[in-house]
Amino acid sequence: MSLAVVSFSGGLDSTVALAIAVDSYDEVVALSADYGQRHTVELDTAARIAARYGVRHHVVDLTGYGALTTSSLTSDEPIPHGPYDEENMASTVVPARNAVFAMIATGLAESLGGGDVILAIHGGDHAVYPDCRPEFLASAAATAELATDGNVTIDAPFIHMSKTDIVKLGATHHAPLGETWSCYEGGRQHCGRCGTCTERKLAFHEAGVPDPTAYADDTLYRHGQQVPA
Questions:
Q1: Which domain does 19 fall in, by range?
Q2: CA within 20 to 30 Å of 109's CA: 120, 125, 142, 219, which one?
Q3: Could you tell me the pTM of the whole model?
Q4: CATH (domain of 56)
């Protein structure tokens, strides 16, 4: 029986990954992390989407780890508004976050008898987050296999895809894109101004897929410039 453990934030990318995994594996487990992020609404979102798909959902307590890191996501530092690029999003980096998540997911997959760990990192993340790059993926996959005698592999099916590509793929797989959460601000509505909201809006626009998200500010920007209506 094939097994996949999906590193699952309840965001757009990981929800599409979960939707595809449900269609591809006999058993799917969703693994989320509470690392002290201000946008804990994503954990509620993850729980609802996992229940929608009827998959087991685990939340691992990493608040101690988050407290040791430096990031605007785990502190009172302002969340940057504007484009989703390296310069603007630098403060949102939680050091080695995906590396930590990947290895915990590896341990869970091994405990369940072995299988695949699915990470939803994508091409648009490469400039901002070191542990979202192909070099990291290759190293993490090798580490997982060595640590489990080859019983667990790590895959990132979107590693060379854009957010726009993922939106298109999600629409094809009828993923509940409107139920996902992207905003880093920590409110109960997408702010529409932070980098993740800006990236999300542009992805739907470029994909030609209607955006079901309610934003506090629905102005569309590309590279910091407003896109004409």
A1: 3-226
A2: 125
A3: 0.95
A4: 3.40.50.620
Q: How does DSSP classify residue 31?
A: E
Contacts of 121 by beta carbon, 8 Å cutoff, 6+ apart:
13, 98, 129, 131, 132, 137, 156, 158, 159
Grouping H, G, I as helix, E, B as strand and the rest as coil, residue 58 is strand
3-class SS at 225?
A: strand
Q: What pLDDT tens digit does each residue of the chain (229 aa) get?
A: 899 999 999 999 999 999 999 999 999 999 999 999 999 999 999 999 999 999 999 999 999 999 999 899 999 899 999 888 888 888 999 999 999 999 999 999 999 999 999 999 999 988 899 999 999 999 999 999 999 999 999 999 999 999 999 999 999 999 999 999 999 998 999 999 999 999 999 999 999 999 999 999 999 977 777 776 5
Helix (H) / strand (E) containing 2: none
Cβ-in-10-Å burial (0-12, 13-18, 19+) of 107 comes to middle
Residue for token digits 């965001």? 11
The domain tally of the chain equals: 1
The distance from CA 4 to its chain's CA centroid, rounded to whole angstroms, is: 16
Structure tokens at 117: 């760990």
The DSSP-derived string for 110-154 is: HHTT-EEEE----GGGTTT-GGGSHHHHHHHHHHHHHHTTTSEEE
Is residue 22 within 8 A of residue 28, CB to CB? The reply is: yes
